[in-house]
Structure formats: C-alpha cells, structure tokens
Amino acid sequence: NILKMLNNMALVYNQLGEKDKAVKLYKKQLKGAAEIDDKQMLGYAYLNMGIVFVETGRIDEALECFDKQYQNAKELGEKRTIAFALGNMGVVHSERGDHIKAKKMFLEQIEISRNAGLKTILGYAYGNLANVLKELGNNKAAEKNFDLGLNLLRETGNQYFQSSCLYYKGVLMYDTGRV
What we know:
Elements: H1 2-15, H2 19-35, H3 39-55, H4 59-76, H5 79-95, H6 99-116, H7 119-135, H8 139-156, H9 159-175
Helix pairs in contact: 1-2, 1-3, 2-3, 3-4, 4-5, 5-6, 5-7, 6-7, 7-8, 7-9, 8-9
C-alpha cells in the first residue's frame, strides 16, 4: 500500500542522511493515514518522524511525535507500542535534563512491559531508569536497575542492549571509584 511505501522511502532517506526529505514523506504518510483512519500507519509515522527529530536535535518536535504515538497506541490498546512510546518520551525528557519526568516515563514503561511480558523492552527500560537514577545521584538504585536490565537482556539474548547496559554500568562504577 502507498502508506507503507511512503514509510519505507522515508526510512531510506533518513538512512541516507536526507532528514528533510524523510520528514516530508512522514508528513505525507500522516496525512494519508489520517484520511483513511489507519491508526497503525499513523503510529509508524509518528515514531519514525520522532526519531528523525531526535537525530536532528529537534527535541520538542520529537517529544510531540512520541506523545502522539503514545496516544494512538493507547487507543489501539497496543501494549508494546505504548511501552516503546513511553521509553522514547523518557529518553527525550532525559536529553532535556528533566530527569524527574524521564523517571516517571521509565517507571510506567517498566510496569506496562512487566505486565505484558515484554522482557526485552523491560530490560531496556531498567537500563534507562538506571541512567536517570545515576543522574539524580541515586547510584545504589542505579546499579540495581542496571543489573535487573542486564539479567533480562541476557535472558532474551539481546546483545545490543546488553552492551549498552554494560557500558553505562561501567561508567557508573568508574564514576564512583570502583574500577
């Protein structure tokens, strides 16, 4: 379908570094999806456009996209997408230095992921929460959450997120003089 084609073309433009072209295509996808009330394609467009905005430093626009992705996913009852959107919003709040809001997003992401059995997202959420807790000066809780995340990510075999979690746990240990 044409909406999937627009999404795929925008993904390619984004990978090629042509961010403005990607955003234009996502906006066309949003318009088309809204016209036919295709909420799934709306969600994809909001997610992917939000990622482009993060990559280009347009944080406020990214947050708006992720919030719309979240609202859309809630309407659809898609727990996985709700969890992703909460994580995306948490990362953006953390980037903005609003660690209290980020913590709230990650705690909600953890609850939804745990209840829905989404172990990889749950592991990733624990890692993100750990980073926020570190920024808030709660190093003991940060280390505990890194360990919770690592255990889940090892269980799921997700090496990418394991390496990220290990890296940031190492930074915590270095910063606290334990390596």
